[in-house]
Amino acid sequence: MAVVDGFQSVEDVTAGSGPAATITVCGRHREAASTWLQGFQTVERSGGTVGQRCGWMHDFREPEVVLRAHAGSWLGQLSGLDRADYDDWASYLSATHERLCAMHGLDPGHMKGDSAVTWIGMAASELLHGGDMGAALAFLADAEVLVAVGMVADGPDRCC
Fold first, then answer.
1. pLDDT tens track for 30-60
2. What does 63-113 look like in DSSP terms, one character per residue?
3. pLDDT tens digits along 89-105
4. pLDDT value at position 87?
5. d(CA 122, CA 128)
6. CA distances from 104 to 43, 81, 116, 144 (A)
7. Lowest mean pLDDT among 61-70, 128-137, 150-159
8. Interaxial angle between packed helices 133-148 and 116-128, expressed in degrees from 0 to 180 and rounded to the nearest 10
9. In the structure, what pLDDT confidence band is assigned to residue 75 with cuts at 50, 70 and 90?
10. Quick count: other Cβ atoms within 10 Å of Cβ 158?
């Protein structure tokens, strides 16, 4: 396992500022993390892990910034939906989940396994039911990593 810290600028790295995001990946998925951290300056830590498994991620930016980043960098491309067409994040994520289920022949009421579509549905449900924004963001972070490693519609309980 490796820990990759993503910084928003080279100055952050050289000044010793904390990272904007941190992800733990196995050797097999290290390249996928590069895609996910596109736009960040990255530093790989030697040894150790943060989190318990490949794909664990923590984003330290403000929730609204993180949501906009998800919508702009991968959710919109994956679903073909534009966040501007929805009143709030809950309705956008619900529509995204429904669209992806339709695209992949999945039943939105019976999601299981470790796939990006499942995690997007969990994020939508969290926000629709007045849940915690932090939990929804954690679900989206997992979904983004799963998309990066090619597990959009299906996947094992753990990728590695």
1. 776 666 677 777 777 766 555 557 777 777 8
2. HHHHHHHHIIIIIHHHH---GGGSSSHHHHHHHHHHHHHHHHT--TTS--S
3. 999 999 999 999 999 88
4. 95
5. 10
6. 35, 16, 12, 17
7. 150-159
8. 170
9. very high
10. 9
Query: Distances from the Cα of 84 to the Cαs of 2, 95, 103, 126, in angstroms?
Result: 36, 12, 21, 20
The tokens of 77 are what? 């491309």
User: Are the beta carbons of 6 and 42 closer than 8 angstroms?
Assistant: yes
| DSSP conformation class of 28 | G
Cβ-proximal residues to 92 (8 Å cutoff; 6+ apart), any chain? 71, 81, 83, 85, 86
Pick from 77, 44, 85: which is nearest to 69 by CA?
77
Output the six-digit token pair for 122: 């969990």
CA torsion sign for 147, 151, 157, 160 is negative
> What's the pTM?
0.76
